[in-house]
Amino acid sequence: MAIFCQRCGTELPVSARFCSNCGAVVPAATYTPGRPLVRPIVGRQIGGVCIGLSQAYGWDVGLVRIFAAIGLFFSGGLVAVAYVAGWIGIPEEQIARP
After folding, report:
1. Do 49 and 40 contact (CB within 8 A), yes or no?
2. Which domain holds residue 76?
3. Which of 39, 54, 71, 72 could form a disulfide with 48 if both were Cys (CB 3.0 to 4.6 A apart)?
4. Residues 23, 40 share a domain
5. Which long-range contacts (C-beta less than 8 Å, at least 24 apart) are formed by 87-91?
6. One-character DSSP codes across 5-38
7. Whole-angstrom Cα distance, residue 98 to residue 91?
8. How many structural domains compose the chain?
9. Quick one: CA dihedral 61, 68, 57, 53, positive or negative?
10. 12 and 38: one domain?
11. Domain co-membership, 20 together with 48
């Protein structure tokens, strides 16, 4: 998939940061999530909220879990309420049946 310079219209490779023709800065591509926001069956520790968020947005699951644990102690319970809300509100991944 190629991208095009917004200034001169030259076709550029995806990894380009500057236009090779006019030198204009190429804006960073927007991130599109790789998976829908679901709580997966495999890899969950408690409710699957952290791994679901990390897979949907492309974050490292270890960092999400560390931030959730730190936030649990320093937020006065707000992260715990958000986790329970995510546990209830984020749908569980469907098992594929033949």
Report:
1. no
2. 31-98
3. 39
4. no
5. 87/39, 87/47, 87/48, 87/49, 90/37, 90/38, 90/39, 90/48, 90/49, 90/52, 91/38, 91/39
6. -TTT--EE-TT-SB-TTT-PBPPPPPP--SS-S-
7. 21
8. 2
9. positive
10. no
11. no
Residue 80 tokens, joined: 């715990």
- Residue stretches of the chain with pLDDT short of 50: none
Looking at this protein, which amino acid is placed at residue 16?
Answer: A
pLDDT score, position 30: 59
Which tokens hold the place of 40?
């997966």
Q: Are 22 and 60 part of one and the same domain?
A: no
3-state secondary structure (DSSP) of residue 56: helix
Q: Exposed e or buried b for every residue in 39-48, given b needs 16+ CB within 10 A?
A: beeeebeebb
Q: Which two tokens stand for residue 90?
A: 């984020």
pLDDT given at position 33: 52
